[in-house]
Design goal:
- By secondary structure, this protein is mainly α.
- The chain has a single domain, classed as ABC transporter involved in vitamin B12 uptake, BtuC, CATH 1.10.3470.10.
- The protein starts with 6 loop residues before the first helix and ends with a helix.
- It is found in: Cell membrane; Membrane.
């Protein structure tokens, strides 16, 4: 309990709660839309936004947001062109984002390894009060967006063609969702790092799917898994002086393994009960 006396721990825990309401919604929808790699792609593109900010000597956060929002719209446009092969848009933009980042970093003599490392690996323990407020605001916005367009998101995640023929605003909602995903990734990147932010989005939702039987339950279970994993990672990082992002990711992996083994043995037991011979 004495950990809670420190301001940076309090900010990290509040940020963890905010993230726990963001990533289950985004992660579940990405998985259902077969776009799990989009989070990783946007993290690479975010690095390009950071490098652009350093190159232009402007706030990297602002340049990253603008860069990622634009890239999210382009990805959604490419996805409509290559409708049958939607993963092509992800592959193209991931390569472009990383290439632009490397070129800009090499051209900018003021970039500095420390700044790049900060965005590559991140640290939720170093989050500032302003970043906490931004995360909380983004969390509230995404939850409201989900509650308003829950039916549309549900239908388009399973069958986008059916949603479109039903008169639902699929294109608009899809673009807004891609933009929200990009903004969330760019804001979370300095907290957990570009190398691990996709794990924060995908792993808890993938775990929740294994033990839930509905769309809404998956999100609720995902929130719980996020809270457990993030809090466990933060406390482990403080106790053993390990990188916060890596500690949180390992906590999620441990939970995923435990849930996978538990569901496997439960399924095996049911099969034996149904087939005693």
């Amino acid at each position: 309990m004495e950990l809670l006396q420190y301001d940076f721990i309090q900010r990290a825990l509040i940020a963890g709660v905010a993230i726990s309401f963001i990533t289950p919604i985004i992660g579940l929808l990405l998985i259902l839309r077969r776009q799990s790699l989009l989070a990783d792609t946007l993290s690479h593109i975010s690095l390009a936004g950071v490098a652009l900010g350093m190159f232009l000597q402007v706030d990297p956060t602002l340049s990253t947001l603008l860069f990622v929002v634009g890239a999210s719209i382009i990805i959604e446009y490419l996805r409509t062109i290559y409708n049958t092969f939607s993963e092509i848009s992800v592959a193209i933009m991931m390569s472009a984002g990383m290439a632009i980042a490397l070129v800009l970093v090499s051209l900018n003599s003021n970039s500095g390894n420390f700044q790049i490392d900060q965005y590559l690996f991140g640290s939720i323990l170093l989050i500032s009060p302003s970043e906490v407020k931004i995360l909380v605001g983004l969390s509230i916005t995404i939850v409201i967006f989900y509650l308003i367009f829950r039916r549309t998101l549900y239908v388009m995640s399973y069958d986008e063609a059916t949603a479109y023929t039903s008169g639902l605003p699929v294109r608009l909602i899809s673009i807004i969702f891609s933009v929200f995903t990009g903004v969330a990734i760019s804001i979370m990147m300095p907290i957990v790092g570009a190398l691990l932010v996709s794990a924060l989005v995908v792993i808890p939702s993938a775990t929740a799917i294994k033990i839930s039987d509905s769309f809404g339950k998956s999100i609720v279970i995902g929130i719980i898994i996020n809270l457990i994993g993030i809090f466990a990672g933060i406390f482990a990082s403080y106790e053993y002086d390990t990188p916060p992002g890596a500690s949180i990711t390992l906590a999620f992996i441990v939970i995923f393994v435990i849930v996978s083994l538990a569901t496997y043995f439960v399924t095996l037991r049911k099969r034996k009960q149904n087939n005693p011979s």
